[in-house]
Amino acid sequence: MEARALRLLVVFLVLGSSSWAAAYQGLSTNLCEVPAKDRVDCGYPHITPEQCTNRGCCFDSSIHGVPWCFKPLQDTECRF
């Protein structure tokens, strides 16, 4: 019985994670081409690139002094 429950749990986790990964497609690169001066913050201190993109935002840490996690061109709100 324990082995069957464990197998069922593994199958559930594999199917659940693969469907979540397929559902999230990310943002196209051109939506994240926001000039540094126009970036609107969409994150919080020490946010990771994955956490940022999971919020539907763009991440670019190449320019210091501006938000690294910022709203894409078409969005007006971040998703939490």
UniProtKB/TrEMBL annotation:
Entry annotated with the keyword Ligase: no
Domain P-type: 30-73
Keywords (A to Z) from UniProt: Cytoplasm, Disulfide bond, Extracellular matrix, Secreted, Signal
SMART domains linked: PD
Key word Repeat present: no
Gene Ontology biological process terms in this record: maintenance of gastrointestinal epithelium
Compartment(s) of residence: Cytoplasm; Secreted, Extracellular space, Extracellular matrix
Main subcellular location: cytoplasm
Gene Ontology CC terms: cytoplasm; extracellular space
One Pfam family in the UniProt entry: Trefoil
Signal peptide annotation: 1-21
Function description: Involved in the maintenance and repair of the intestinal mucosa. Promotes the mobility of epithelial cells in healing processes (motogen).
Subunit structure and binding partners: Monomer. Homodimer; disulfide-linked.
Name of the protein in question: Trefoil factor 3
Lineage of source species: Eukaryota, Metazoa, Chordata, Craniata, Vertebrata
